[in-house]
Structure formats: C-alpha cells, structure tokens
Predict the 3D structure of the following.
Amino acid sequence: MTARAARLFLALSAARLFVEPAAAGEVPLSERRSGYEFMSRETRAMQDDDTGNPGTLWVLDGEALWKRKAGASDRACSDCHGDARESMKAVAARYPAFDPALRRPVNLEQRINACRVGRQKAPALAYESRDLLALTAYVTRQSRGLPINITIDARTRPFLEAGREAFFRRQGQLNLACAQCHDDHWSGKLAGSPITQAHPTGYPLYRLEWQGLGSLERRLRGCLTGLRAESYPYGAPELVDLELYLMWRANGMRMETPAVRP
Amino acid sequence: MARAVVTVPAQAKRGEIIEIKTLAAHAMETGFRRTQLGELIPRDIIRRFTCTYNGVEVYRVDLHPAVAANPLIAFTTTATETGTLSFQWVGDNGYSVTEIAAIRVE
C-alpha cells in the first residue's frame, strides 16, 4: 500500500466511525426481537402462565430466602430492603452495574453475594446453586415487564467496549464470533433451531434443555463451548463485560424473568 | 426444597367443571444417566400423584422415568361440594409432599 492509499484508507475508516457510532452489523432498534418471538406456541404458553411456568418454583423459593435470616449478623434481606416488590422494582433491569469498591461492573449474582458476605456475614452462595438462582430470580421477577435500562458513563465505558470486542471477536476451533450468528444470521437456523438475536431479557430462565433454571453466564459458557473455545469460569470479568454489552444492546426491551426457553 | 404449587379456583358453581394445575419441584432423575466417570446416577423420580376431594380420590397418575423434571400436571374435575382438595406426590428416597386447597361450591 502506498503512503497515499494508506492515508485515504485511514480517512475513510475515520469517516465510517463518525457516521456509525454503533458497530456495524448490530441489530437496528426497530428489528429487535426477544427470544420469546422465536419460540413455539406451546413454549410461549408455558412462559405466559405463572401457574404452569416452572420458573415459578424458583421465584417462590427466592421469596422464602428473602425473608429468612442468615449469617452472623442474623439478618434477612427483607430486614434492610423491606418488601422486594417495592424496593427491588426495576433494579435487575440496570444490572450489571458499576461497583465503586471493585471499580468494575458486577452482575446481580455478584451483588447478592456481596450483600451476603458484607452485610449478612454469611458465606457466599455458589454460582448456579439453587439458592443463588432462586434469590436472583425473585429479585429479577420484580422487574418483569419493565424496560432494560443500562446507563453507560465514563467508568463503565471501557468494560462495555471490552464486552463488545468479545462479541465481535472470532473464537474457538470453529473460529466464529457471537456477532456472526446473532447479528448477521438471526433469521436463520442452526441444526434446526432458530438463531435468536441473543437479547438477555429473561434470565435467570428455565431452559427445557437444562430441565432447570440457569443464569446468563451458564448460557454464555454453553455458547463458548459450542464454538469449541475454552469457557471462562463463573464470575469471570470477561463474562460480566459480555453480559454488560448484551444487556446494553437490549436496552429498552422488556424483562421477562422467569422466561422459558427450549 | 420440596416445593409444590397448586392452582385451584377459590369458588365454583355446583356441577361446574374446574381446572386444577399442579407443579412440583423435582429433578426426575431417570436412573439411566451416567456421570463423566461412568457411574450410574441412581433413579430418583416421583412415582405417584393423587388428588382427593373431601377424602374421595378423583385423580391419580403413575409417573415413570421419561417424565420431565418439575412435572406440571393439569386435570379437571367436577365441583360437587364445599371442602378441601388434597394433593400428594410420593417418590423415591422418601420424597413425599402434600398440599391442600380449599374450594367453596355454591
């Protein structure tokens, strides 16, 4: 490449960045669709009916845990936060959120565990344990129907960019990026299953394949394994950055927790 | 946690057909799966579900390993008189859960 051509290329790249603040290939706002819209009528009916939605079992367990005293301080979540239906309304819709002490975003599971360790003086709950999923589901249930509301400021922007970079980075032996399926081919199918847009509107959700409730991190780890890439451990900063990007990408979409997915 | 949820209409007209829905938290481990080390995971399922209406059995199901986890059982019965519906799930490893719901029939 001659020097002149290189300058022209750089100028064009800069112009492209200027007119497209969002990365190319992202799903336009008007075309965003929740995974719910890709499901069969039967699976939708299962999610819509609280009396038949198996996620209800975890929400009810979470409600019981919310009121149960735990740890050396002998306090329950409700002793500080009161009625979750009021105090936790719309809270999950803004997670992962910036934690000033850790100086990075934390997801809701990490926030609940920080409260358990710091305030209740109780041991942290293991990732994907029934109790942590139940509490997370109960707190997130209070945001059902409300729009996802991730605000990005100077403190969280680097983490959002890291998550975005991971989403567009080719990974694993299959050498695929998340975006190649979920931005570019979301109307298609993979092995007979619809490819969705990967909007995390309903986590923690009941997946029929799992026969149980699972977190967004469990789903992301499954996706990474599918790419034949090495998964990050639960709670890894890389996963939380990706969660932040995905939630930001779904800004304005309605929360569905506890959702049901095939 | 052995949790079960039942949904029964609080009141009904005499002779009306009512829908009852039940959901039980259970892993329904088939007994056919193996761990990564090749050891068989022992069977752990709900074997029987019964519903009695004022002491009279109105509905019963035998469950088998092919039934999915957290089984949802929905059925109908005729509202005959005011009283209680009792639901019982019985399974392997001493699993037993009982739920009671009241119904008023006019």
In short: Chain A touches chain B at residues 51-52, 54, 56-57, 60-61, 64, 130, 208, 211-212 (CB under 8 Å). The mean pLDDT of chain A is 91. The first helix of chain A runs from residue 3 to 19.
